Amino acid sequence: MTIILGLESSCDETAAALVTDEGQVLAHRLATQEAQHRPYGGVVPEIAARAHAEALMPLVDAAFTEAGLTLADVDAVAATAGPGLIGGVMVGLVTGKALAHAADKPLIAVNHLEGHALSPRLADPSLAFPYMLLLVSGGHCQLLRVEGVGQYRRLATTIDDAAGEAFDKTAKMLGLGYPGGPEVEKAARLGDPKAVRLPRPLVGSGEPHFSFAGLKSAVLRARDSGRFSTEDIAAGFTAAVVDCLIDRTRLALDAGGPVTALVVAGGVAANQAVRGALSDLAAARGLPFIAPPLWLCTDNGAMIAWAGAERFRLGLIDSMDVAARPRWALDPTAEKARGAGVKA
Ligand code: KG4
Ligand code: ZN
Question: CATH for 128-294, among 3.30.428.10, 3.30.420.40, 3.30.360.10, 3.40.50.360?
């Protein structure tokens, strides 16, 4: 059995976890910066980097205490090396390097997206490759055919905003709190999804990508018309996002070749409407639907430790001069999606 320390610091969550290659989570610790970013309605990179630097080592210590282990007990140190806000990524990666160097352990530089992509296998070790993953978070909206560790075929990405970003911006426009996803979900439960008809960008098109910018503008127009309640707009918006996600996932399932399961990961996977619709789609296709527990869907250290464990098993370790990368595509062969502001 091997034990991996995992560090995460690419956005607004600082996290450290100890995970075994058999899928046991020995400890996981997390500090969210939500309160620090709330006054600005979004993540401020400079504030994030400083907060990661303050929070990370105490979280590492707490994880070791929780597990009753010391640095000498781990087999490797895994740290997120990108993509993400570069200041935060550097804090985590440099800390990982320092710990690995001090204890003479191998370093594993993990792609944050690979952490999300492999996390369902930590939750369910029986999940076999290849599976179809819908990765929907604040920074990413992608469909990936996960074919093996380090083998990802990107079938779709967003040509403008990520789905979580659309939730956050909608919350801001509607005067709901931050982070927006959970607030929009709460409001949507009280609204009528049919009261306001919002566009479903790219739905029905053969182009496999996502787009949410037009939907965002439509939310603004609906709000400014003064004809609809906040709850109805939130419900209409959620219904539109769900339709977009389902239509695009259906297309990827048609085009991607056989898979063992339909899997969802990323913060938006917390949304019950999204989960329910994906579960129905999987059932209609005769596929198991797998959604990791919520704490594993959003950013966390265990998914980085687990991706580290999967890589370590295959001998995939990194040198100490590996660099932090603000952009880092999981599938370097994927064509660039048209449009500006494309996320890696
Ligand atoms: O995966 P994550 O924790 O961080 C990123 O890597 O982005 O995802 C955070 C995103 C935010 O945009 C947040 O608004 C969204 O996930 N989110 C939700 C819900 N909970 C979190 N979106 C819709 N409904 C939710 N219940
Ligand atoms: Zn993430």
Answer: 3.30.420.40
